[in-house]
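pipeline stage [seq->struct] | target=Iron ABC transporter permease | organism=Rhodovulum visakhapatnamense | residues=353
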Amino acid sequence: MRPARAADGRPVLRLASGLEIRRGNLLAGLGLVLAVLALGLISLGVGATRTGPAELIGTLLGTGSGDGAFAVLEVRLPRIALGFLAGWCVALVGAALQSLARNPLADPGLLGLSQGSMAAIVLMLVFLPAAPLGLIPFAAIGGGLAVAGLLIALVGGARAGGMAILLMGIAVETVLSSLTAILILYAPPETSYALSDWLAGSLFQASWGAIAALGPWVALSLPAIAILGRPLRVLDLGDEMAMSLGDPVLRSRPAILLAAVVLTSAAVTAVGPLSFLGVMAPHLAGALTRSTGRARLVLSGLMGGLLVVAADTLSRGVGGGIALPIGLSLTMIGVPLFILTLRLRLLAAMRTD
């Protein structure tokens, strides 16, 4: 690895294989990782059970005991880990879909992928309540794949542009939202209450078992980033330019949708929908440094995980005895940051003009 300059003059680190990493992207990634670790340590001490610094350090070193150690190891640490992994998945998918659709508002919810997974899970829990819980992730993936296949079929195949997929996704998402609402309305009261709680986005059921169930699906995101990073980079330039640069659009587009379905379904199964995160995180990451392709996916994923951990910390810190859904606290933190970022970008653009 050695310092060099990219074709546009920006400083990069060039590997022996020829791969270039922009210094700005590397610094932003390291900054986000440090922010996640720092916020995670702060979050470990936040909650109804008081945990001082000495007790927290002792618990992490394996010498803690009592209620404080239980709260840290069995409640807070699983919530932090599960929230980060789910936020990583949703934000990464949001960045990928924005490049695919060439629209800054695209995210798993807007294209109906989240709704497809949620509708499949709700159908299973309402009509097959005795089914094994291990089937829920596969039901979610099946629902997401059904929506993705339906989108491709409705827009006329993989040759359709990203905007057509986005508009058709909005229509499908609206129908599925209505279907889910009807199912919850007429479900038994206890089932309806549990589903309503989950649909608001929840880390209440976080556990090491839930992390172990989500972990393998999250691990798939790493090869997905490596494989799909270049196609996403050229798809930002448009389908015609991507094809002229040698990208097999007819194969890469369905592959991106498949990866988006799997990661979205895994996150929805674990914590429910994380509304607007897929839109916010890529834009907030973009405010730190300009990035494309693999770097944009990684930075967006880190930002998504950071936002969910921050939202969970807020919900436990200011909620008192009220259990706030993670979706609500995520909106309270993310939307003001999103508005501020867009406002600063607008002011910078006005000064440039």
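stage status: PASS
auto-comment: The beta strands are 2-5, 11-14, 20-22. The chain has a mean pLDDT of 81.
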